[in-house]
Amino acid sequence: MSETAIAPEGGLQRLGVMLFGAVLALSAITLAHAALPRPEARPEPEATFTPPPPARVFVAFQSPLPNHMINSPFGLRQMPWETHGRLHAGVDIAAPFGEPVLAAADGVVSRAGLWPGYGRMVEITHAGGLVTRYAHLGAVVPGLRRGHRLKAGTPLGEVGSTGVSSGPHLHFEIRDRDDRPLNPLYFLGRRFAQADDLPLDAAAQVSPRVRMAQVSNIPESKRSLMAARGLIETGD
Ligand SMILES: [Zn+2]
Fold first, then answer.
1. Which of 23, 162, 187, 235 has the fewest Cβ atoms within 10 angstroms?
2. If you measure from the C-alpha of residue 58 to the centroid of ligand 1, how many angstroms do you get, rounded to a whole number?
């Protein structure tokens, strides 16, 4: 037989194999399709996992100097150069020069610069009109200006001893929208879900007890005052 005589037969065989292959492939697709879940077979909505709604946070406070202790509390305090107690309107946190000072809560910078007594200071306004002040700073973060928005934990400056200060520390204040000084201990490390949760009246209470301040270094500006009252000896 010649090659041309067997050619159609071979062609038919190949066609048969191709058709068989095509049928197999179609069957496989049909089986795969049948295995897919049908819309009516989906679980009921109540059986699906629904994540809980995020916790509402009106304002949350963290320490402006994590890992450093408060060494002078809020309340009436008498400095060695004073004749009577005066409100210490915040807390002092002792830390070395240059330590980064962080924003205690989300807010907008309302002051950044020199302020009498406070020295170099940053003030931030938060939800509910609450204000935090960071005083005696050695430096403010370059470019930080009034109107800048800061997230909690953002560095705003570094620890120093500017203004009326007896050594490197941060003087940290919280005030309400009426400029009432509040005890920061009612806020640090706490989060509040709504404005009504803020413990404004409790935090504004001042104990009548006057605490005598222990000061290791008398500020230069107070030395002559104390010498005039015979409280310290001077060299001249
Ligand atoms: Zn202070």
1. 235
2. 27
